[in-house]
Write a structure and sequence with these properties.
six-stranded antiparallel beta sheet; ten-stranded mixed beta sheet; 451 residues; Thrombin, subunit H; 3 domains; Rossmann fold
């Protein structure tokens, strides 16, 4: 029911993208239509109530908004169109299409910000999402219903990594949420999904850097509401890709300042953890086969992992992937759910092989420090240095592109090029089954296929 409050013909105050007025009967989260005298207007959402004082978050931003604007409260909560017809489409942060396609105003709309699934009905994660990125599939497996961030810094190729996972992962539906993207990044993601043949099973919600700040706050909610519906009601394996959650947190900070809220650490609001957790906790495996898996980029200002955004994120998510120098760092990365699939969804040698490779790469890193300090190197140190070089080229480079079984085989081949079986500290039965019998081909010419 639309309540046309004609008496509210004047907005008391406009601060940034916030508008304040006096009204009775408005509900928290309710939608409103703000119409300027010249006929222009925008949707808005009630974000704060204090007696009869109402604060609206204007979707189109406060620029050009007049205090003489007329406000109509719509009596409904925000929602998003959701049906199979949204696949292959691109929407802005307000939910309106920007791909030139037809309007979806007649489609079924589902509410935003629903509660996470009841933990009692959630299934234990047990299925692997293969990405063809060796540093993920071999060393930090992505598991269905996992929530995991990519920690990085500005300038790193995290968008290229995210896009690759999106079109290579074995998921039924990919939901992309971009926040504060420059046009080049938006164009890159759009073309990547089209050129790799996955656009038909992808839906994109994009807030560009030039778009209103308020829409940036809506993108994760739009993406996750749609993902949850596909997973819970249609049994789809849904992969949600979000970039960049630090841009999302910065938008929350700016709107909090406009609402005159008291900041906490480094200007961020005290509910930062709660707001992030409400989104990440949408990751879930549902009875019936559907799942929502969340992979989100979190940039770290100044490469500072103690910054409030990555710091709070680390308490919520099930590990992290560190991207440094165009490589996924094996020492900082962690998947706390990988034990559910390693050796079960893959192969029995997966865990001992990965452990041996990481241990020997650490030996190579120690040998590099010895060489830098002009210490004498042993024969083992020399071989560890060679292994570290091959490991970076074949596994750590994010351009490496291999199915998980081929990556395991390449791991054994790489170890055999540098070390004797007894130096691997792997069970004898595993060595007898998987260690290459023909060690004649131990040259540097064996390379991992790259995209």
């Amino acid at each position: 029911m639309i309540r046309d409050l004609t008496s509210h013909t004047r907005i008391d105050e406009i601060v940034g993208d916030m508008a304040r007025l006096r009204a009775r009967g408005a509900a928290l989260g309710e939608l409103a239509m703000v119409e300027n005298p010249d006929g222009s207007g925008s949707l808005a959402r009630v974000v704060e109530l204090s007696g009869d004082r109402v604060t609206l978050e204007v979707y189109a931003g406060g620029k050009g908004l007049s205090t003489a604007a007329r406000v109509r409260f719509l009596g409904q909560q925000p929602g998003v169109a959701c049906s199979p017809n949204i696949l292959g489409r691109i929407f802005r942060g307000s939910g309106e299409p920007i791909d030139g396609g037809p309007s979806l105003s007649a489609e079924q709309r589902i509410p935003l910000n629903g509660p996470p699934a009841n933990p009692v009905v959630r299934l234990q994660p047990s299925r692997m999402i293969e990405t063809r990125v060796p540093m993920i599939d071999v060393f930090n497996c992505l598991v269905e219903s996992q929530k995991i961030p990519i920690f990085s810094v500005a300038g790193e190729p995290y968008n290229a990594l995210l896009a690759r996972i999106g079109f290579q992962a074995n998921a039924d539906v990919v939901v992309f949420g971009g926040m504060g993207l420059v046009f080049d990044d938006y164009h890159f993601f759009r073309n990547a999904f089209v050129e790799n043949g996955v656009a038909h099973r992808t839906v994109m919600y994009v807030n560009q850097a030039s778009d209103p700040l308020v829409e940036r706050l809506l993108v994760p909610d739009l993406a996750l509401a749609v993902a949850e519906r596909f997973a819970a009601e249609e049994g789809k394996r849904v992969l949600v890709l979000l970039t960049d959650m630090t841009a999302y947190a910065d938008a929350m900070r700016e709107t909090g300042v406009a609402q005159e809220r008291i900041p906490a650490v480094r200007g961020y609001m005290g509910d930062l953890y709660t707001q992030l957790a409400q989104r990440y906790e949408k990751a879930c495996s549902f009875p019936g086969g559907g799942s929502v898996t969340i992979l989100a980029v979190t940039t770290m200002p100044g490469d500072d992992v103690t910054h409030p955004v990555p710091d709070n994120t680390g308490y919520i998510t099930e590990g992290q992937l560190y991207l440094h120098g165009g490589r996924i760092d094996p020492f900082g990365s962690l998947s706390r759910l990988k034990q559910h699939v390693v050796g079960k969804a893959t192969r029995e040698d997966h865990s001992p092989l990965a452990s041996a490779m990481i241990r020997l790469y650490a030996e190579g890193a120690d040998a590099e420090r010895k060489r830098a300090m002009a210490f004498e190197l042993s024969s083992f140190d020399e071989r560890a240095l060679r292994f570290a070089r091959l490991f970076r080229e074949r596994f750590m480079d994010i351009r490496a592109n291999l199915p998980v079984i081929e990556a395991l085989d390449l791991g054994w081949s790489t170890l055999a090029e540098c070390f004797e079986p007894g130096e691997l500290l792997v069970r004898q039965d595993i060595l007898e089954k998987y260690y290459p019998r023909d060690r004649g081909d131990r040259g540097d010419h064996v390379q991992a296929p790259t995209q």
